[in-house]
Amino acid sequence: MDRVFKALADPTRRFLLDKLRENNGRTLGELCESVQMARQSLTQHLGVLEAAHLVSTVRRGREKLHYLNPVPLHEIQERWISAFDQPRLDALSALKQKAETAMSAENEPRPEFVHTTYIAATPEKVWEYLMDPEATAAYWFHHNVSDWQPGSPWAHRRLDESGIDDVVGTVVEADAPRRLVLTWAGPDEERPHGPSRVTFELKPYGDTVQLTVTHVNLRDEQELRQISGGWSFVLSNLKTYAETGQALSIPA
């Protein structure tokens, strides 16, 4: 938390966060143009923001895209505001709608949804929970079913033994316990530009795991809003389940 307040104390860094809120997923060059600052100086500011987890980065070829990460801001809200203001999930949802936007490159889709969280568990354990059908049943309320080999199908299957799959796709990449890439679409869904794609990236971070989820090639802004709320809850539930063995309670 000290790093967050130190990062927010500088007006240049606050301005950078505002620019990312307006237009998320910017390159270093684009940010340099926005703030009219030398690359070396801007890199130092971004380093402070990344150290505070206020900015997350995703590689796209040789470029590194910068995204505003709302999690530390939510932690501030949860600690000092939520008890006196509005329910924390409503606040987080509203914050994420402003903080997470998408840009599309002409030839290659940019990450349209990016969420980073930190889980007090090993990368191997989080990797297992992403794939194990019983674990996903506990925190995701579906069985994730596949042999998890590149090129194999996978399915997000209901728990009611109906055999109905709400999401289907292909395992594009499975590099345990670091990176999992899946195509993502409804079983009978028509998507003119092909299925969307979800990437899970796991990195050790001290005694925790940094988990970054990107969801690209979404149909439109409405779909972005729909999946943003869903992913926020699923990843919060995964964090709770991995750290405590218990899923979040859901209001009736």
Automatic annotation (TrEMBL):
Gene3D superfamilies for this protein: 3.30.530.20, Winged helix-like DNA-binding domain superfamily/Winged helix DNA-binding domain (1.10.10.10)
Highest taxon of source: Bacteria
Domain HTH arsR-type positions: 1-88
Annotated SUPFAM superfamilies: Bet v1-like, Winged helix' DNA-binding domain
NCBIfam families (alphabetical): HTH_metalloreg
Stated family: Belongs to the AHA1 family.
Entry protein name: Metalloregulator ArsR/SmtB family transcription factor
Lineage: Bacteria, Bacillati, Actinomycetota, Actinomycetes, Kitasatosporales
